[in-house]
Amino acid sequence: MSASDKTNFDEMHAPDGSVRNAYDSYQEWLSGQDEGWMRRKNFEAESFFRRTGITFNVYGEDDAEERLIPFDMVPRIITGAEWRRLSKGIEQRVRALNAFMHDLYHRQEIIRAGRLPERLFRHNKAWLPQMVGFTPPGGVYTHITGIDLVRTGPDDFLVLEDNARTPSGVSYMLENRETMMAMFPELFSKVKVCPVSDYPRRLAKSLAACAPPNVDGPPTIAVLTPGIFNSAYYEHAFLADQMGAELVEGSDLRVVNGKVQMRTTMGFKPVDVLYRRVDDEYLDPLTFNPDSMLGVPGIMDVYRAGGITIANAPGTGVCDDKAIYSFMPEIVEFYTGEKALLPNVETWRCADPDSLKYVLENLNELVVKEVHGSGGYGMLIGPTATKKDLQQFRAKLKSNPDNYIAQPTLSLSTCPIFTRKGLAPRHVDLRPFVLSSPEGVDITPGGLTRVALKRGSLVVNSSQGGGTKDSWVLED
């Protein structure tokens, strides 16, 4: 989108050019730095990421085995007061999502009450009949959740989407902070920023608290990865290493004596908690896709018998559905008895004839998304679309309206990035990471800020040319 930056909320600068309170100390430090030195630091950051191997894959591209995650060294800064308000809304939403999952696989009270149409999940591939009547250990479905937020004004944060299946990106949050602290140690002496480096310890603690009740001693935690060719393999290996957990593939695991066990040099050893980064479809070839080579035959039988915890629980992908998302205000109110503290982006459900009519009449002004889409794929940004794109999407909407939702083209807030010509505003979003266990909800201060590096672009996904920033929450 090529909307003027002046129409967007600038998180660092007020309209009169003055620096907002959150950035006061940072700006004071920045104004004392030599521009040539900053350029060298920018190059140093890129070299650091390349040495560390912070890369990702984009499927379907021959040259994409090792693509560098673009990193911008100007932090995105949130005040402590802003974060406290955000945290309350995030916690409320995650608790509602977990309660919703339990209800959807049990009595379905929200459907009986007429607050959610049954059609939304009855033919939804993410809804698993194998989970009906089963409650995971500790009653937790969404152990790790990523809530994508956008900002449109000083106090206006909106939820763009929920990620409750296998949210990714936390390793970039951690490496961004480590890179910034290595490059600018004196800056962190000047500006008091809430730490994020203890996330792996908190993740391990949260997962351990969700272990099955019959485990003797500290539970054994393992991270299940599809393997080295997966786009997020770096993150899988990183988290396993940082947690002190085992990194396993499906071929390393088998069901032995009613337990999921991993092969070791000393024989097979039981796994109590499996942090899986494998989609539901490939988790158990005996239950789901029989051709899967990534999962563990029989793991769902062990799971339903209470012999292992799978995080996140199978079937949580329903929460990622963008049609379900459009009902989140009702879902939050139904399970918490409170109005949602964090509003949704206005959403038109194309399955509704009146909404479809509106979307078709205003296609060039809207963002259209597939209800099961992710990563910025399968979407249309009306204001930047070609006539051919609009024509193709019009045909898709008419032939399969249930598969799409539409939203207004938002005036996303901007944060500055470092360019050859100095600081320049770019659009950003924020993905806080939330841990849930029987002990409560734990939100890491900040999260992953994704930034659209192209001027005027609204697409922040790394697979679509976006980058990342360090996210600072200021200590009071």
Automatic annotation (TrEMBL):
Gene3D superfamilies: 3.30.1490.270, 3.40.50.11290. It comes from the Bacteria. SUPFAM superfamilies: Glutathione synthetase ATP-binding domain-like. Coiled coil: none annotated. Residues 75-452 form the Circularly permuted ATP-grasp type domain. InterPro entries: ATP-dep_Glu-Cys_Ligase-2 (IPR051680), CP_ATPgrasp_2 (IPR025841), UCP005522 (IPR016450). This is Circularly permuted ATP-grasp type 2 domain-containing protein. The lineage of its organism: Bacteria, Pseudomonadati, Pseudomonadota, Alphaproteobacteria, Sphingomonadales.
